[in-house]
Design goal:
mainly beta, 62 strands, glycosidase, Immunoglobulin-like domain-containing protein, GH43_arabinanases, nine-stranded antiparallel beta sheet
Length: about 1000
């Protein structure tokens, strides 16, 4: 609870007042100070629970909605400030202003750099749309407007709806706030509204309305921080003092009543201190533990800051922190404001300790990706080298590494490149040792890392998509094709959003999905931006997020933050105005992912300049989508606005499609708001101009421009290029087909062109892809409904099925077959999706069994003698991705058949045994009966007959045994019976 107090005395009790304020505005002298009537309510931002306390003594407390203790800060001369962050408002009670006449005064002390459709305060109730009766009549002040006619100026007015019009009368534009806290006083007197800024009149207007048409009949008079217009944002501003009178103050009383210039300057300094401290700190944990460079902003809250250092050798006036000191060193940094005040920050620069660089290293304990084995410490800049217990598994630092002449240098100097064990081989362990050296200190630290086996490969059998829908629906949705046809998309998850942001700006746009280099994981990055939250496009570009939102998944159904927390990852520097449309691509030479994004870049972190603010493209590197190189490197800066790049690789070249963000032509780029194509052999090669003749070995060569608008009739952005799967009916006979997509953002979303690798690669200034007869936009249809700037990616059948059912990946069915060659039995296991199969097969026959590990989906075993039939059971694998199956039995006996008959020879019975070898191997056959035994060699597919003379005129039935053996170890044993016979 903040203690209740009336800390700002009215002017009649002031000891004196300055003749010239720190804001350069005239104020009454002590002799001129006017008597000011007591206010009907005074809110000095003292609060208790959900009450904003009225310190006038009249007991008219306001009610806080979703504003908590954390919304209030104490600054200056023990001054409470309510920091409205578009996260709540206060409801004013009735009685502050009455409907008896048109006379009232509202004094409002505020500072804000946010220009938006917002109300600082309003008298009136009833939230509704423009020109409707649902919208209550009202009088209001917006301290900083985003409307073009009042851009960055104070907007105030009165509204009483008539039968034919909205009925709003606005006070003319009289300018904006003074630097720091300004007091805006609106006085209603009869049919006149007069607006004062820091005691000086800046505008006035007459009107025909009556407060009796405005004052609500209910218990709520109005609001602080809430607009009555549907769709307007809640207020973003710092408010330190608000007073209401049910009378009209004179100009002298207005000047006398407001907080003094000294009070406002002190509060302004306090707010600046609060706001700049996180910026100054950068990556340092606190001002008492400084080891990395500080960021000293050139301005804050519209106030210029000039910095001085008590020890520039330790902390320079540009924030550079020395790492050559031998002991902890205190330094005082002083910011002199353009108001003439000073703000001091006491810091302690910690002496470098090599252990801090080692302790700052974070490696995954199990990895599917190359490892970010940095060679420079993040805490103190120590030199770090890495060794590996198994260089074939994870490479160590390459002492001989040299940076390439063009493009990014490998920040890991050849270290950390992982060779994953084959699928089915199991994970492997490695010990990595980091040795850090700094200022003569050397220490080591070891890391145990498990290198994951490769994931299961299966052919791609469909496609998935991720996208957002509109400026009013900034969530991530997904869709999937019905099969292996790109133009058969339909929503998944019942058409509901897949990810809704509850962090950062609470908006998600421009999702991009990248499949990992090994194909068994997906990464998704998205823009942290919420236009529907009330952010205007101007502020979104000038003060937008420095973060990207990042997730990973193996099935595109279950997504997890790569950083393990519900927040984005800061990859941009404070000088940036926004971080838009992040995408990523694998760089073969760097063995890392390149994440690129569009940004407006200011001269300093305070964003003080208004020139050279065209969008350009930057990149950072990552191997795990958790740690990123810093600061971002310039990738595309031609002096013209560029955004929304996407990349594919064909042969030795990377091909890049980008949007010309200019409203018209940009140098040789023929049309604004359209797509152009470039190529380079070096993904990270910088681009400083659009050039048809550029050398693609060292930069990016222009290949095409104005690629879509002539076909679609619309402006386009968010290009995507997708390689078609084998078997897709849209693919070419050569299997090199591509779909190119462009987001027609004002006309329903993505449209598609079908092309191929050769057509893309052969585009030149004289023979441009977009000017060929075959470059035609497809009819609308087959893509996700209303997709805005998103991503399209190939998926296997199991992932496709999981997406469409919005469930876990199910095991793929398998079929096991066996064949025998002699005593060797071979099992083959096939997955229904044509993908890899690993694991074990258990062979069994009778009481015998043996388990064998599959190799290339095949397992062979030698079956011991005596086992005549074998089945094979595929046991599956630990990942459970392919289901078990059992073969039919295979026989290991020779295929020998026999028949018996008799004949009479000279009155005696003769037995005739006929044996047939239906097998594919020669067999040694032994025929044994009561009247003799014979052994013959019987070729494959042949028959032979053996005769036995009985010398008897009649015989009883005689069983004859047939045994056989082949050279490959198989055998046969059977009995044939000679029927009783007589020759009498």
């Amino acid at each position: 609870m903040t203690r209740r107090r009336g800390r700002r005395a009215l002017a009649s009790t002031l000891a004196g007042a300055v003749a010239l304020t720190a804001f350069g505005l005239a104020a009454p002298t002590a002799a001129q100070a006017a008597d000011v009537p007591a206010p009907s309510a005074h809110y000095d931002m003292s609060h208790s629970g959900t009450s904003l306390l009225d310190v006038s003594g009249n007991g008219r407390n306001a009610t806080l909605t979703t504003l908590t203790d954390s919304s209030f800060v104490k600054v200056g001369q023990n001054d409470d400030v309510l920091r409205f962050k578009a996260d709540g408002y206060a409801s004013l009670p009735k009685g502050l202003v009455t409907a008896t006449d048109n006379n009232f005064t509202v004094e409002y002390t505020v500072t804000t750099q946010t220009a938006a459709n917002q109300f600082g305060w309003v008298i009136g109730d009833g939230v509704g749309a423009w020109n409707t009766t649902a919208l209550g009549n009202h009088v209001f002040v917006n301290p900083r407007s985003g409307e073009s006619a009042y851009s960055n100026a104070v907007l105030s007015g009165i509204r009483v709806k008539t039968a034919t019009a909205n009925g709003e009368t606005r006070v003319p534009n009289g300018g904006g706030l003074n630097p720091g806290f300004s007091t805006l006083t609106l006085v209603g007197s009869g049919q006149t509204l007069t607006l004062y800024r820091d005691g000086v009149q800046i505008s006035t207007v007459t009107h025909t309305n009556s407060m009796s048409s405005i004052i609500p009949s209910g218990t709520t008079l109005g609001y602080l921080g809430r607009s009555l217009y549907t769709g307007d944002a809640l207020l973003q501003a710092d408010v330190t003092d608000v007073k209401f009178w049910d009378v009209s103050l004179t100009s002298d009383q207005v000047a006398s009543s407001m907080p003094t210039a000294a009070e406002k300057a002190a509060s302004t300094d306090g707010i600046i201190r609060l706001d700049i401290t996180p910026t100054v700190l950068g990556s340092n944990p606190s001002l008492n533990q400084v080891s990395s460079n500080l960021t000293l902003p050139a301005s804050s809250n519209g106030i210029t800051l000039t910095w001085a250092s008590s020890n520039p050798a330790v902390v320079s006036t540009s924030g550079v922190v020395s790492r050559s000191i031998s002991s902890d060193t205190p330094v005082t940094l002083t910011a002199t404001t353009s108001l003439g005040t000073t703000i001091t920050l006491d810091v302690v620069v910690k002496a470098p300790n090599v252990s801090a660089d080692l302790n700052a290293i974070s490696l995954a304990t199990r990895t599917t990706e190359n490892l970010p084995l940095a060679v420079k410490g993040s805490a103190n800049g120590a030199a770090i080298t890495w060794t590996s217990s198994d260089p074939a598994l994870v490479t160590p630092t390459n002492a001989a590494y040299t940076a390439p002449a063009v493009g990014a240098a490998d920040p890991y100097a050849g270290g950390g490149i992982v060779t994953r064990p084959a699928y089915g081989a199991g994970d492997k362990q490695v010990t990595l040792t980091a040795t850090a050296t700094l200022n003569g200190q050397t220490q080591t630290r070891t890391f145990q890392v498990t290198v994951a086996e490769k994931g299961r490969w299966a052919p791609d059998a469909g496609y998935a998509s991720a996208y957002f829908k509109s400026d009013s629906d900034e969530k991530i949705y997904q869709a999937a094709t019905s099969g292996n046809d790109f133009f058969t998309f339909s929503p998944v998850n019942g058409g509901n959003a897949v990810i809704t942001s509850t962090a950062d700006t609470k908006g998600l746009r421009d999702p991009y999905i990248l499949r990992s280099k090994d194909g068994d994981k997906y990464y998704m990055v998205a823009t942290d931006l919420c236009i529907s939250c009330g952010t205007g496009w101007g502020p979104a570009q000038s003060a937008g997020s420095l973060k990207i939102e990042v997730w990973e998944s193996t099935d595109l159904v279950h997504w997890a933050r790569t950083n393990g927390t519900n927040t984005g990852i800061t990859i941009n520097k404070p000088e940036a105005g926004m971080t838009w449309a992040p995408e990523a691509y694998w760089d073969d030479s760097l063995q890392s992912y390149v994440v690129f994004f569009s940004s407006r870049m200011y001269a300093d972190s305070a964003h003080t300049n208004s020139d050279n603010l065209y969008a350009r493209v930057f990149y950072v590197l990552t191997r795990d989508f958790k740690t990123f190189t810093y600061p971002p490197a310039s990738w595309q800066d031609t002096g013209y606005a560029r955004i929304d790049s996407t990349v594919t690789k064909i042969g030795d070249y990377y091909y890049r499609f980008t949007k010309n963000e200019e409203s018209g032509a940009a140098s040789v780029l023929e049309a604004g708001k359209d797509i152009f194509l470039e190529r380079s052999k070096v993904l990270t090669a910088p681009t400083t101009q659009s050039n048809w003749s550029a050398d693609p070995n060292s930069t990016w060569q222009l290949l095409d421009t104005r690629m879509t608008s002539l076909e679609t009739g619309q402006s386009g952005e968010g290009p995507e290029i997708v390689k078609l799967n084998a078997g897709d009916p849209n693919n070419t006979a050569a299997g090199d087909g591509y779909v190119f997509l462009v987001d027609n953002y004002s006309a329903g979303g993505y449209r598609a062109f079908v092309t191929d690798a050769q057509s893309i690669a052969s585009s030149t200034q004289a023979n441009r892809l977009s000017q060929r007869a075959e470059w035609n936009v497809r009819p609308v249809g087959g893509l996700p409904t209303s997709p805005r700037h998103g991503a399209f990616v190939s998926v296997t059948k199991s992932v496709l099925d999981a997406l469409k059912g919005w469930t876990n990946v199910a095991a793929v069915a398998s079929t096991t077959t066996v064949s025998a060659s002699g005593r060797n039995v071979t099992a083959n296991v096939d997955a229904a999706d044509g993908g890899q199969v690993v694991g074990t097969v258990t062979f069994s026959g009778g009481a015998w069994s043996k388990t064998v590990t599959l190799s290339d989906a095949t397992a062979t075993v030698e079956v011991p003698a005596g086992v005549t039939g074998v089945t094979a059971h595929y046991d599956g694998y630990t990942d459970g991705l392919v289901s078990a199956s059992t073969s039919s039995a295979v026989s290991l006996a020779l295929d020998i058949t026999a028949s018996a008959t008799t004949r009479c020879v000279t009155g005696k019975v003769t037995e005739v045994i006929t044996v047939t070898n239906a097998d594919d191997a020669t067999a040694t056959v032994t025929i044994t009966g009561a009247y003799g035994s014979k052994t013959v060699s019987l070729a494959a597919g042949k028959s032979t007959s053996a005769t036995f003379t009985t010398r008897l005129a009649s015989i009883a039935a005689d069983p004859v045994s047939i045994t056989a053996q082949s050279a490959d170890g198989r055998s046969h044993s059977s009995t044939v019976t000679v029927a009783a016979a007589s020759c009498n």
